[in-house]
Amino acid sequence: MTDHLFRFGAVAGHAPDWTGLARRAEDLGYATLLVPDTLGTLSPFTACAAAAAVTTTLRVGTYVLSVANRTPRAMAWETATLQTLTGGRFELGLGAGRPDAERDAAELGVRFGTPSERIERLSETIDAVKDVPILLAASGTRLLRLAAARADTVALGVPPQATEEQVAAKLDELYELAGDRFDDLELGMNLAAAGTEPPAWLGSLDDSATGVLRGTPGEMADVLLRRRDRLGVSYVSVNAQCLDAFAPVVERLTGT
Q: Counting beta carbons within 10 angstroms of the beta carbon of residue 196, is it exposed (0 to 12), middle (13 to 18) or buried (19 or more)?
């Protein structure tokens, strides 16, 4: 279904040794270290700069920036700076704001806006940013339409409990919206846990949940290969708490 090769990212908002985490992710073969945009985590642009400064091949990115928190011009300024300082290793991940992002916006003293206003802000931000890979987190039809037209990578905004059938339905919609551009899109999904016991906050998950991978490295790799064949998902990010446990899968599949 896709000609895209596998690549893998680690998502982290904090670490006792942040630069050590970046080096470890690079050593284990991860393609990217991704930083969320919340007031309870590290400042994403600064964290990305610090990670890039101690690595040579690791790409760094945001996963994902809430567009309500910064103007398009400010986003373009920060992005251009990081692209220069990292030697082109920065990837910009954007979103319209997770469910609790409105609280962060209020603490920052900025207006969160309506869903329509935030989607328009997303489009304006993409217009403002130059020469950087764009990842858009999308789930609803309006965001999927924007991602289909403007993104390089589409991160499917589905909960960990989502089944493959539910993911497939989202991708069918994206396929219809993207038309001839669909094959150019890199499709991404995030794993809340892989190779370790799921965190307690996830509650109980059955075997159909796509946000958790269980089993041996070989079994997990087989699941991802099957999902790529069926769904086209080739960019897989994982909670950095699973960095070492998931590393054998990264070694098996990267570049295949």
A: middle
Give the Cα separation of 116 and 218 in Å (integer). Answer: 43
* pLDDT tops 60 at residue 251: yes
Residue 246 near residue 238 (C-beta atoms within 8 A): yes
What CA–CA distance (Å, rounded) separates 251 from 256?
10
pLDDT tens readout for residues 9-41: 999 999 999 999 999 999 999 999 999 999 999
pTM value is 0.96
User: What DSSP assignment string belongs to 180-246?
Assistant: GGGGG-EEEEEESEESSPPPGGG----TT-TTEE-S-HHHHHHHHHHHHHHH-EEEEEEEGGGHHHH
Q: Which of 176, 141, 171, 137 is nearest to 157 (CA)?
A: 137
Of residues 201, 200, 218, 198, the one with CA closest to residue 210: 198
Contact (CB, 8 A) for 25 and 238: no
pLDDT the model gives residue 201: 75
Determine the straight-line distance between the first and last CA of the chain, rounded to whole angstroms: 14
Looking up tokens 């969320």 gives 36
Q: How far is CA 144 from CA 57, 84, 98, 135, 139, in A?
A: 30, 30, 15, 12, 6
| Residue 3: predicted pLDDT | 86
- Mean pLDDT to the nearest integer, 100-106: 95
Asked whether 143 and 126 are in contact (CB, 8 A), the reply is: no
Residue 7 is given by DSSP the state E
Going by the DSSP 8-state scheme, the letter that residue 17 receives in this structure is T
